[in-house]
Amino acid sequence: MVQSVNEIPQEDDESMGQIRAVHICLHLALPSAVKALIELGVPDALTEAGLHVELTAAEIASRCTERAADPESFDRLLRLLASHNFLRVSVNSENPDQRKYALTTAGGLQYLVKNNKKSELDARVYVAFRSNGWTLLEKYKGLEGLGSLIDVGGGTGETLALILSKYPQLRGINFDQPHVVAKGVQVPGEYPGLSTSIKM
């Protein structure tokens, strides 16, 4: 008899399905949580405080934009990210509700700090993506017949430039933070919006 390697015992089927559904939902929330963390300026605020300095959610919120004004909701966001090792969290044994957060080197958020000292990593990351991108682009046919393409979080536009080299009929728009797009590639031809930021 052949047994599936991922077969779930019958009695655990329903509970495991529920656990799996919650697990998937949490993984869907993680990219949004990281995006919110960056937009609120948490990596910058924690870096300015010092790499090993621990701050409460309220202290971090006071150093960030006004959108982080609700410390309780903000603390939930920070706890989620700490559970995935983006941040370090410590709890006061006398007051368990008093959590303090700090950056971790393992979390990779130092890379997201403006004017960080590891900017040379940018070039290596983009070279790695670019070298594999062409192979993928040769096989993927989903862009044929499109008139425009918006690359959300497109960085400096390397991927979009690669796509436009294969599909020159496309109008390409690179959407990213202004300081990232300012370093963007310039592509010859008429590509309105490439290497410019879109304001929402």
From TrEMBL:
Q: Cross-referenced Gene3D superfamilies, in alphabetical order?
A: Vaccinia Virus protein VP39, Winged helix-like DNA-binding domain superfamily/Winged helix DNA-binding domain
Which is one GO molecular function term here? methyltransferase activity
Q: Where is the O-methyltransferase dimerisation domain?
A: 23-107
Q: In this protein, which residues make up the domain named O-methyltransferase C-terminal? A: 134-186
Which keywords does UniProt give here?
Methyltransferase, S-adenosyl-L-methionine, Transferase
Query: What SUPFAM superfamilies does UniProt report for this protein, alphabetically?
Result: S-adenosyl-L-methionine-dependent methyltransferases, Winged helix' DNA-binding domain
GO BP, sorted A to Z: methylation
A Pfam cross-reference name: Dimerisation
Q: Which domain of life is it from?
A: Eukaryota
Matching entries from InterPro entries are given as: COMT-like, COMT_C, COMT_dimerisation, SAM-dependent_MTases_sf, WH-like_DNA-bd_sf, WH_DNA-bd_sf
The name of this protein is: Uncharacterized protein
Organism source for this protein? Answer: Riccia sorocarpa
